[in-house]
Specification:
The structure is a single chain. By secondary structure, this protein is mainly α. The protein folds into two domains: 37 residues; 49 residues. It contains four helices and no strands. The longest helix is centred in the middle third of the chain and has 35 residues. The chain starts with 11 loop residues before the first helix and ends with a helix.
């Protein structure tokens, strides 16, 4: 259980804010809300499965975003003609 010690010259409001932040980090409120009612094993598995799918989708979308960004950055630097690539890089550097 999180606890907060009142510092010298600290207001009660700031101590309450620190306490609330500590409780949020610890997950006490979310745990108590989850335990208010009995959850069947089937619904628990379903909830965990949905959360796993969301995490996977989020991870793949981030990876695709960074891959696309990397392609866009390197796209302008890839050339077939070596002379043209030298000219192009000198133009990019001089700008």
């Amino acid at each position: 259980m999180p606890s907060v010690i009142l510092r010298d010259h600290e207001s009660i409001d700031s101590a309450m804010r620190r306490f609330k932040r500590a409780i949020d980090k610890c997950g006490v409120i979310t745990e108590s809300r989850r335990r208010q009612r009995f959850e069947k094993p089937k619904t628990k598995r379903r909830r965990k499965k949905i959360a796993a799918v969301k995490r996977q989708l989020k991870r793949t979308s981030k990876e695709n975003f960074y891959k696309k960004q990397r392609r866009d950055v390197t796209k302008g630097l890839r050339f077939k003609d070596p002379i043209a690539s030298i000219e192009q890089t000198t133009v990019l550097i001089s700008e």
